[in-house]
Amino acid sequence: MKTTSEIRSDFIEFFRSKGHTIVPSAPLVPANDPTLLFTNSGMVQFKNVFLGSEKPGYVRAADVQRCLRAGGKHNDLDQVGYTARHHTFFEMLGNWSFGDYFKKEAIAWAWELLTQVWKLPAERLLVTVYHTDDEAFDIWHRDIGLPVDRIIRIGDNKGAPFASDNFWQMADTGPCGPCTEIFYDHGAHIAGGPPGSPDEDGDRFIEIWNNVFMQFDRQPDGTLLPLPAPCVDTGMGLERMAAVLQGVHGNYEIDIFQRLIAEAARLTSRSDLDNKSLRVIADHIRACSFLIVDGVLPSNEGRGYVLRRIIRRAIRHIWKLDGLKPDGTFWKMVGTLVEVMGDAYPELADKRELVERALRAEEAAFAQTLDAGMQRLEGYLQRNGGRIDGEQLFQLHDTYGCPPDLIADIVRERDSAELEPSAMEDYERLMTEQKDRARAAGKFGNATTLPAELAAQLPATDFLGYDKLVEGGLEVLA
Ligand code: ATP
Ligand code: MG
Ligand code: MG
Ligand code: MG
């Protein structure tokens, strides 16, 4: 059986042998784009290369990019624990052509890696192409020999042509183009239809690799001009590929996750290893640890607030499984994470202590109010016949530090409970009103943590000053 580490290096070695320069992963906090919350795909660090304002010293590159989809345009947080294939944090393997090779080579190499190096049975694979991309269709059919019934054209059947899944664009204008996605059929015993079918959201056919062909420059009036130098941008989910190669269906069954889940089970004294909460905890420890490694700390704003919400969600799941322990539980997962991912990411081992301290402090802070918050939630649910409104969401957040998506997560677990349709909207309004009042009273929302840039510069063993920062965080929660 191939380990996830071996698959990671197989990919890199394969593309190295095809003349690609190996580029390190960029951090989760994008260096070149203040408008983007997190690095959500491999292309983020190459954005300016596609736009032509930056020229790297190579035309072919390959990398393993750490990604987070837990906020902003791409948000898979609500999928975690519910699908076999979604994480908040995941690793995206990618190969890139900057005006060098194009569709023919990209498709041929993808096929070679999958069917010759990794020896996947061809009959388990199927692909989608953009509905008008005859070129890609023909390469799959004529060069590769894939039968036409396993090349699915995806186009405007889901609405506007360019809102569809198989046309990729970075923004409303700029580089864009069609893509071809490769799916693996996990077998008829699993519910779900092929891509483009009404039940495509099931988990039988799982998308493993997206190959984007950037060939147009979209103008403000919507017209598509051909790019002088077409590019290739691909993304393969490492965990999904590991599931395929390890002969399991879901990402949570792969080696890395089995270790993390076993540790979460041990720490919460559970033996039901397929428990959804254990999966959530295993997913969230990766997202939270890598965010802290990349310079984010829990706070009430921006990136830090996303981190805070993910940590609190994880802690709520721990609470649900086993109650809260005085010395915390979530932060104790870091050691196992370092064991399973520290080789590939030495920075994780280097900053282990910072990560543990930050998680521990947040856990201690939240533990003070979580129990009371949960009791209050039960009271609301009984009083309202299982419905939670915006005012209640606001109270739960304001008084007990329970973010609204955490409450939504609980409500979703119960058949008898739901959010009022306007709850989130009303909550946002109440939050804005509260901020306005604070501003009018001259109380500026204090930055609850050290600026991320400073935290990132903290030497791993030097935590002078970090305690102060943690106290600052506690103050806001009190
Ligand atoms: P899906 O349709 O399954 O949500 P996607 O089309 O959103 O996937 P892309 O944006 O094309 O995914 O990203 C490229 C690859 O990254 C995917 O083919 C998949 O292998 C992987 N991937 C995407 N989102 C996730 C996630 N949340 N967790 C794990 N892997 C992911
Ligand atoms: Mg998706
Ligand atoms: Mg998709
Ligand atoms: Mg895709």
TrEMBL record:
Ranges for the Alanyl-transfer RNA synthetases family profile domain?
A: 2-478
**Which EC number(s) does the record attach to this protein?**
6.1.1.7
> What are the protein's UniProt keywords?
Aminoacyl-tRNA synthetase, ATP-binding, Cytoplasm, Ligase, Metal-binding, Nucleotide-binding, Protein biosynthesis, RNA-binding, tRNA-binding, Zinc
Kind of enzyme, top EC level?
ligase
Question: Where mainly found?
Answer: cytoplasm
Free-text remark on how the cofactor is bound: Binds 1 zinc ion per subunit.
Which is an annotated GO molecular function term of this record?
Answer: ligase activity
Q: Which reaction does it catalyse?
A: tRNA(Ala) + L-alanine + ATP = L-alanyl-tRNA(Ala) + AMP + diphosphate
Q: Which cofactor does it need?
A: Zn(2+)
The entry's localization annotation reads: Cytoplasm
Comment on protein domains: Consists of three domains; the N-terminal catalytic domain, the editing domain and the C-terminal C-Ala domain. The editing domain removes incorrectly charged amino acids, while the C-Ala domain, along with tRNA(Ala), serves as a bridge to cooperatively bring together the editing and aminoacylation centers thus stimulating deacylation of misacylated tRNAs.
Tell me the function of this protein.
Catalyzes the attachment of alanine to tRNA(Ala) in a two-step reaction: alanine is first activated by ATP to form Ala-AMP and then transferred to the acceptor end of tRNA(Ala). Also edits incorrectly charged Ser-tRNA(Ala) and Gly-tRNA(Ala) via its editing domain.
Q: Which family does it belong to?
A: Belongs to the class-II aminoacyl-tRNA synthetase family.
The protein's name is Alanine--tRNA ligase
Q: Which organism is it from?
A: Cognatilysobacter xinjiangensis
Task: Say which residues of the entire protein are included here.
Answer: 1 to 478 of 887
